[in-house]
Amino acid sequence: MGWKIHSAVAALLVSGMAPGAVAQKPVPIPPSGGAGSQSYARITAQPPSLTVSFAGKHEQWTAAALAALPHIAVKVYNGHDKATETYSGVPVIDLLTRVGVPDKPRGHQFRIYLVAEGADGYQVVFSLGEVAPDVHQGAVIVADRMDGKPLATDGSFKIVSTGEKRPARWVHNLVAIRVYTAE
Asked: Which residues in 86-112 are b (16+ Cβ under 10 Å) and which e?
């Protein structure tokens, strides 16, 4: 006998999930109470990952997969913590090119922008020109290490941008980078 789940129940289950969690098909638990009693197993979160998307293409990055890519190190002053920190990570442009974003934008390609989002819903915007090293001197990386150690309280991934006066566009607990083209 198969279990049906109505869309209203599914919406309630999904809305209660933690940001970045991946929905799994509800698993019926045999009734323990009276007749007609039913409940569902808890939805479990998947390991932290980062999704990069552009024009219908998507790449999913786990901490292990990102760690295997070539890294660069950047030294920045964190105005919030009043400290100089060294981050290691992958240039954002290296992840974007894997979903078809040009690495050396020209002309109309400067209408391309990206939205980086944290698990808490915090979002920031970068233009393609700001993350393309042949256009902009600063570096924008997806960091996975700080001062030689894995990120701790900032999640598995963090956007770090050099050359900014304060870290307002640094996104901790980074879960998505979505790329769009302005009209």
From this structure: ebbbbbbbbbbeebebeeebeeeeeeb
